[in-house]
Amino acid sequence: MKRTRLMVLMAVAALIAGIGVATAGPNDGYLYGTVTTRSGNSYTGLLRWGTEEAFWDDLFQSAKEDLPYRDYAEKRSKVEDDGRGGGWDWLKVFGRSVRIGWGDGSRVFITRFGDIRSIRVTGSDSADLVMKSGAKIAVEGYANDVGGTVHVSDPTLGEIDLDWKKIDTIQFAPTPASAHPQATRLAGKVTTRSGGFDGFIQWDSQECLSTDRLDGDSDDGRVSIEMGTLRSIERRSSRSSRVTLADGRVLVLEGTNDVNDEIRGILVEDPRYGRAKVPWDEFERADFEPGRGSGRGYDSYGPGGPLHGKVTADDGTVLAGRIVFDLDEEESWEMLNGERDGVSYDVPFERVAAIEPRGRSSSRVVLTNGEELVLEDGQDVSDSNDGVLVFADGAERPTYLSWRKVRRIEFEH
Fold first, then answer.
1. pLDDT tens digit string along 116-135?
2. Based on C-alpha coordinates, what's the Rg of the chain?
3. Residue 246 in contact with residue 230, Cβ under 8 Å?
């Protein structure tokens, strides 16, 4: 009887805990933290990176400065031009000559804001990041996430835009229930020529709030429409869009990158994959659906940690242990990049169950939710991949496999 009662109590507790997760606050997904300037002042409140990123699942992008796994390779000859403005080295790795495409000496760094613990500004376009996992990453350049402005909505002091060069540190924290943003997050369904995505939307890689504006030229002149008043946007041609408002009015707009093929992409945070970027040529329409909340809260992003699993070589040999993918990504919060049907994907490794190379230009990617993607063109999923290192337990040094020698990679989660 006591055992039955204990099991009932445990079940009730689990139910309550589950309800707590399911009923997370509507504003939990907004960026929040404290920005301390070099003058010693501090500002605490909702954050926004310039006029773009405002949520924990938005992507922070820059370039890694420290590439420790190059130490496992010994230069053998000069860098040769790869025809794309970068280059590659013939290197000797554990006695084998391999080609490593390090380009200008850095690698693109992409992570979700929710995976970052703090940022310390080190230069006009550089910073040191401390991740929740404890990893420390030095980044510089590549994107305006370093070197731009950070907007703070401090409930006591008001609104302020802080120039990157004036910032000392940024410390992230869970968004309190007392935070009251003056806008809601854009969400809905984006239909492409080959399918569709459903989730939070960042239009033109920028507009993500209901108060952000869609600009365009109508028959009667330039209009600037709050995104929250839109019902849908439909591609009409390479140079124009058909825009339907919530009140039923329909406008044909042209003349700006909000409504033509100069758009910087339509980003969708789809829970199946992560972040997808849809180009204009693949885009058909977006249907906005208000009332979906703001997304995951800061505490829902775990610390992550090193990638572990097993790698099967083309000769059937199986290597198990800690994995460094593409001689670069080594933690579960890092991103697997690739394209399918013109759409770019940034998939957190924590969602990747397995990867199988398919020829020179693509790979089959199996996700932890059972979804499968055949991704191509990106360095991670083509023969541009620089191979993997496997650190077996107790081994003095890792084993290297070039990408053409990899049959399958399976990750442990």
1. 999 999 999 999 999 999 99
2. 23
3. yes
Q: Quote the CA–CA distance of 396 and 72 in Å, as a whole number.
A: 12
Strand partners, 202: 267
Which amino acid is present at 302?
Answer: G
CA pair distance 68, 391, nearest whole angstrom: 14
What's the pLDDT at 323?
A: 97
pLDDT tens string 233-270: 999 999 999 999 999 999 999 999 999 999 999 999 99
Q: What span, in angstroms and rounded, lies between the C-alpha atoms of 88 and 56?
A: 35
The pLDDT value recorded for residue 106 is 64
The mean pLDDT value of the chain amounts to 88
Q: Nearest-CA neighbor of 304 among 83, 154, 111? A: 111
At 6, the pLDDT band (50, 70, 90 cuts) reads very low
Check: CB of residue 59 under 8 Å from CB of residue 188.
Answer: no
Structure tokens at 153: 């909505």
Model confidence at 105, pLDDT cuts 50, 70, 90, reads low
* Domain locations in the chain as residue ranges: 32-65+107-172, 68-100, 187-298, 304-411
How are strands ordered across the β-sheet holding 136-140? 107-112, 59-64, 136-140, 126-131, 116-123, 167-172, 32-37, 42-49, 149-154, 158-163
CA 66 from centre of chain: 20
pLDDT, position 149 = 97
Contacts of 16 (CB under 8 A, 6+ apart): none
CA distance 195 to 65: 37
* Amino acid, res. 34: T
Cα–Cα distance for residue pair 13/7, rounded to 1 Å? 10
Backbone angles phi, psi at 170, to 5 degrees: -130, 120
Closest CA to 203 of 155, 250, 265: 265
